[in-house]
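Deliverable D4.2, example record:
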Amino acid sequence: MTETGQTAPDFTLPRDGGDQVTLSALRPAPVVLFFYPRDDTSGCTKESLAFTALQDEFQAAGAIVMGISKDTVAKHDKFRDKHDLGVPLLSDADSDICEQYDVWKEKSMYGKTFWGIERSTFLIDGNGQIARVWRKVKVPGHAEEVLDAVKSL
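Output generated by the structure prediction step:
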């Protein structure tokens, strides 16, 4: 399990707009990775909007915020445009990175079992170490809590 104090698993993933992002290339900036289940669902939209609303404050603190789901880049583009999102959305279509960060979990809803992303956030410091982990995230107030953690680095 990916935990506080460990080196964050590095990756290169495609993002909305067609570019690619390599985690290690973002150093020495702190990075916030929020993993979410699916574009354009209620909780995921609220979470993405909350991080977008605080984007200027994250930037002022020197941090880069990015969302990750299994959705395609094309779906991310539609989601970003529909809700005017300001945070990069990365596509982990094969769930390789989700598995490395241990957010790809067996879930249950309405008596059915399936695999999906457990809403989780990772704060990675400027040295590439995981400074803080939030698992089974509840959206209300979460982006503000993450911002406070970034400011305390």
